[in-house]
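User: Structure tokens for both sequences below?

Assistant:
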Amino acid sequence: MNLRLNKSITLLELIIAMVILGFVVAGLYSIEIFSRAQLTAVDRRSRLQAEASYLLEHMAKNINQAIGDFNNAAVSNTTLDGDQAVTIWIDLNQNGKRDPAPLDRQIGYSYRGTPDFQARYYFDATPGLYEVISQRIFNLTWSATDNFLFVNATACWNPANPSDSRCGTPNNPAVTMQNRIDMPAVSTN
């Protein structure tokens, strides 16, 4: 008597193997989707941090040269092109005292909110003549205390996005940075 061994796969075994393989593929795909979302969020957040950092460093570099005297404030809150702004007198000739223009120069920084969300730099504090430093600034505030200017900047990936207007969500990350800028030749008292 000759017995033949059946080495075939039944339909039920084939279905079970396909389901298990499907779970493995779905698991790997979900890991890939999660990793891609995390990479995108980290990339956006690092770009926002670089942009806000550039703005704060730009302000610190220029405001560090501020000069004032008893009669003339070095730092003034004002408006430029209809936006809140701060103007600063810079000691160009570096003689340690406040001189009239062109020996010293007045610069300015302003913040334009909706719909542009721009931080602007005014080379001569002249309305209309500015350089856009950042287009992702959601909020920019400053206050002068003693010999310091405190600046807070919040950058948002897409501050004008109507579908997700909230900054700080996974699809629209936000970064808040602060800086205390020393003005060595200024007394704001």
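Moving on to the next sequence.
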Amino acid sequence: MTEAFRHIKIDIYPLIKDVKEFLIDWPDHRMDKLIDICYLNPDLLKYFEKRNISIRSNFILWYWHINPPKHHLPLKWPHTDGDWSSKDVIVKKRLSGINWSFLPGSRVEWYSPEGATPVFKYRSEHDFSTVWVDCDKVTDIWDDAGPVLFNPQIPHNIKGDPGVDRRLSMTLRFNESYESLRDKLND
């Protein structure tokens, strides 16, 4: 079975300012925002450069509704990021990520795709994913702050403890596979 995530040893705060400052003027009902990597800690960028890791020009800040408001359809089934069946892997599906979580009480659960059916959901040019119908066997859980190397091509979903409505986290995106990053980050 493919690895869902791996804790990695990066003792560098990822941003140039506190993550909550990015929430000021957050658009209503927005769940994610692309932010230029100029807002990443320069020491973190040097860390990747030293390891010859190709980072993309922006990262995603998530302020994910765990129990979405009525105008959002909840993700009943787990999803993979992008078009799982796409041959254009660099653009159409996210190959790997490094994630941090900034609020306690939420987690990512990964599921076995065995017996599940992948269904592509296109919402816009930049908002699409593959949901996995009849996918309910949890195989792994990430529930701490991280950072973790995150495999977005294994079905996963966001869950929260009672009373936790949102998950605040970030994803650094790379032009490399999960396996390539794992090997380059293996200290």
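User: Anything stand out in the second?

Assistant: Residues 69-74 have pLDDT under 50 and may be disordered.
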